[in-house]
């Protein structure tokens, strides 16, 4: 068993996919739009516009992140959760941090800490929280 994050971008999923492809080198493994759903699909209530992302899977490094437009109301909210990226080295951490921070908000600048050679926290332009870390070998973080 493993946990797989599922992020709802509330109508901005295409924009988020483009951003994560550029910032993180994300690869789109699959993408289905609401307009591709079969008739009688079991969904009740109004469907989001046909061009919105119903479900997509992004490969980011060794992990997969699932994404969707959800109900496409236009105001994504990500509260109480952050995604943690373990970078290969400090230079890689800096590259990831700077890319994700573009038009976002830095909560903790990327710098050395007692447990990591690089550690920083930010919220990207969509409101997704990120932790970037390069653990010191002895810390096991």
Topology, pairings included?
Blueprint: E1 6-8, H1 13-24, E2 27-33, E3 53-60, E4 63-68, E5 82-86, H2 90-101, E6 105-111, E7 116-123, E8 129-135
Parallel strand pairs: 1-4, 5-8
Antiparallel strand pairs: 2-3, 3-4, 6-7, 7-8
Please give a structural write-up:
The protein has 141 residues and is α/β, with parallel strands linked by helices. The two termini are 21 Å apart. The strands form two sheets. It has a four-stranded mixed sheet, covered by helices on one side. It has a four-stranded mixed sheet with strand order 5-8-7-6, covered by helices on one side. It folds into two domains: 63 residues, Signal recognition particle alu RNA binding heterodimer, srp9/1; 54 residues, Signal recognition particle alu RNA binding heterodimer, srp9/1 (2-Layer Sandwich), CATH 3.30.720. The protein has two helices and eight strands, in the order βαββββαβββ. α1 runs antiparallel to α2.
Tally of domains: 2
CATH architecture of the largest domain: 2-Layer Sandwich
The general outline is elongated
How many DSSP-defined strands?
8
Mean pLDDT: 93
Strand portion: 35-45%
CATH class of the largest domain: Alpha Beta
Q: What is the topology, as strand order, of the major beta sheet?
A: 1-4-3-2
Helix content: 10-25%
Main beta sheet, described?
A: 4 strands, mixed
Succession of helices and strands? EHEEEEHEEE
- Helix-and-strand structural type: alpha/beta
Q: What kind of oligomer do you see?
A: single chain
């Amino acid at each position: 068993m493993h946990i797989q994050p599922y992020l709802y971008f509330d109508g901005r999923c295409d924009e988020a996919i483009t951003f994560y492809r550029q910032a993180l080198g994300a690869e789109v493994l699959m993408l289905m739009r609401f307009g591709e759903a079969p008739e009688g699909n079991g969904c009740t209530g109004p469907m989001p516009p046909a061009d919105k992302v119903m479900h997509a899977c992004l490969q980011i490094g060794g992990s997969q992140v699932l994404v969707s437009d959800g109900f496409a109301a236009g105001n994504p909210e990500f509260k109480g959760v952050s995604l943690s990226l373990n970078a290969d080295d400090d230079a890689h951490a800096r590259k990831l941090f700077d890319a994700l921070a573009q038009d976002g908000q830095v909560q903790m600048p990327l710098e050395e800490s007692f447990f990591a050679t690089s550690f920083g926290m930010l919220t990207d332009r969509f409101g997704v929280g990120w932790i970037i870390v390069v653990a010191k070998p002895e810390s096991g973080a």
